C-alpha cells in the first residue's frame, strides 16, 4: 500500500470522527446522539427493520446495537412490534420521534451544509462513487 493510500484511509477515519463530533454538538441539545440518528434516519427512510437488519446495514456489533436501541426505546423514540416471523421483533419509530424528526433533520442538514461549504456537487458525486466502489470491496 502506498503512503498516499495510507493517508487516504487515515483522512477518512479522522473525518468520520470529527463529523460525528459535529453532529453530536448539533443533536445532543435536541435529545439525540449521532449513532441514534443513523438508526432513526434509516427507520424513517426505509421503514421498520429488525435489530439484525439494522446491525448489518450499519456495520454495528450486536451488543452495541442492543444498547443503542435500549436507549432509544427508553427515550420513547422507538418501539418494538412482532414481525411476520413471531420470533423476530421489528423496530419502528414512535409518534413522538416522527413528530421530532423534522427538527432533528434540520439540525443534521445545517451541520452537513456547514461541512460542505466550498464543496461542489460534482465533488460530492465523485466522492460517493469512490465510497461505493470501496464498499463493494468490503
Automatic annotation (TrEMBL):
The keyword Zinc does not apply. It holds the Pfam family MarR. InterPro entries: HTH_MarR-typ, WH-like_DNA-bd_sf, WH_DNA-bd_sf. It comes from the Bacteria. The keyword DNA-binding applies. Residues 5-136 form the HTH marR-type domain. Keywords: DNA-binding, Transcription, Transcription regulation. GO terms for molecular function: DNA binding; DNA-binding transcription factor activity. Signal peptide: none annotated. PANTHER family: TRANSCRIPTIONAL REGULATOR, MARR, TRANSCRIPTIONAL REPRESSOR OF EMRAB OPERON. This is MarR family transcriptional regulator. It comes from Cytobacillus praedii. The lineage of its organism: Bacteria, Bacillati, Bacillota, Bacilli, Bacillales.
